[in-house]
Design a protein that fits this description.
By secondary structure, this protein is an alpha+beta fold. It is built from twelve helices and 15 strands. Bound molecules: 2-acetamido-2-deoxy-beta-D-glucopyranose. One of its GO terms (cellular component) is postsynapse.
Length: 380
């Protein structure tokens, strides 16, 4: 008995007993959590750039135009003007052959004075994309305005990133800064790229995908103005930053025209773009009785107090306590255990570790389930 008492005293004060409590508080195990955040994002880009001696505005370089959470800011165009349906020599780039077999006519024609290539049928003249252009570097000063509205459906809590204390005057002049202006919803493209750890010139030249993440991690036990967005920035296509095979991000699109005589022609554009993906994530927690109870029991189970705690609740406070008491004491009696909880605890510790553990686990699981059920019944 002496030995077990010492053992118990030792166990009572070792870190195993404190750890679950710390985890319980730190992980906010007394809250229910809503992780199904609902969100809408609207964006607007502003700024002027110069490309090939042409002034470019938003309608020229942003696609798609709807202001969605994913959009491209085109920093480099390779245009092929006046393409019409016809036959012309194919263009062979030094790195790979255009797989144009289906549309080949089978003839060999002059590409230039020294070089002959196959003739193709399709949109002519064919695109030459091996020429090098400077990207539109003014894009560094373009600004992105982000309007984000979120809702946690479980708590019916809504909020937006245009916080109540943001004034009209402030929003007209502010720029996001991670130290001084952490809630300004206007971002300079050059800053966004820099925060994501990228070099602007390289990114503008090759194209790439940058993520602007908006995090809403809220403790709704605190006041509403403590639930605020946190912005972070990352390069999402880190694979294409490293690979030599297909570096960057580009895509092609065309603008179609019809001449007076009815013939169709088009301008083909190959665009290198910085794509911005605005990603919203978050969760919110609020105090709730059921997880509190379940987690208290679970936390103490590992040190064997769960059994005692549960029994106290079941024996004294809940409906059907009488039946439970009868059953419990009968069980104790038939197994030859001492009646009385402190003593039962001591005797248990003299048995093998495995048996005591098993008993403790099975019993506290049953207890947890029945407590939760009782509480649900009481609350509903
Ligand atoms: C961006 O704006 C700053 C200040 O207005 C200016 O000094 C800089 O030259 C601009 N950058 C580019 C690439 O045009």
């Amino acid at each position: 008995i002496n030995c077990t008492t010492n053992q118990y005293t030792y166990n009572a004060f070792n870190s195993k007993r404190v750890a679950p409590l710390w985890v319980f508080l730190h992980e906010k195990a007394y809250q229910t959590r809503d992780t199904a955040i609902e969100s809408s994002v609207m964006t607007k880009v502003k700024g002027f750039g110069v490309y090939n001696n042409r002034v470019m505005d938003v309608a020229d370089y942003v696609t798609p135009a709807q202001g969605a959470s994913v959009f491209c800011i085109i920093t480099k165009f390779i245009t092929t003007d006046n393409q019409v349906q016809g036959s012309c020599p194919e263009v062979r780039s030094s790195t790979f052959l255009l797989p144009a077999c289906i549309s080949m006519t089978g003839r060999c024609v002059n590409y230039n004075e020294t070089f002959k290539t196959c003739e193709i049928r399709g949109w002519c003249p064919a695109e030459i994309d091996s020429v090098h252009y400077q990207p539109m570097l003014e894009a560094e000063n373009f600004t992105i305005f982000i309007k984000n509205s979120i809702r946690f459906p479980l708590f019916n809590f809504t909020k937006g990133n245009l916080l109540p204390n943001i004034t009209k005057e402030y929003i007209e002049t502010c720029l996001f800064d991670p130290r001084t202006d952490i809630y300004c919803p206007i971002f300079r493209l050059g800053d966004v790229v820099r925060f994501a750890g990228q070099d602007f010139k390289t990114l503008a030249d090759r194209g790439g995908v940058i993520g602007i993440k908006i995090g809403w991690v809220c403790d709704l036990d605190k006041s509403d103005d403590q639930c605020n967005p946190a912005y972070s920035f990352t390069r999402l296509d880190s694979v294409s930053a490293k690979t030599k095979v297909s570096p960057g991000y580009n895509f092609r699109y065309a603008k179609y025209f019809k001449k007076a005589d009815g013939t169709e022609h088009r301008i083909l554009l190959k665009a290198h773009a910085i794509r911005i993906d605005v990603l919203v994530y978050g969760n919110a927690g609020k105090f709730n009785m059921i997880p509190t109870l379940i987690n208290i029991v679970a936390a103490f189970t590992s040190v064997g107090v769960g059994t005692v705690l549960c029994d106290i609740i079941l024996l004294n406070f809940l409906k059907g306590a009488e039946q439970y008491k009868a059953k419990k004491f009968e069980e104790v009696a038939t197994q030859g255990w001492v009646v009385g909880w402190q003593k039962s605890f001591l005797v248990q510790s003299t048995k093998t570790e495995a048996k005591s553990l098993m008993h403790s686990y099975i019993f506290s699981w049953l207890c947890m389930l029945s407590t939760a059920k009782h509480f649900k019944a009481l609350l509903s």
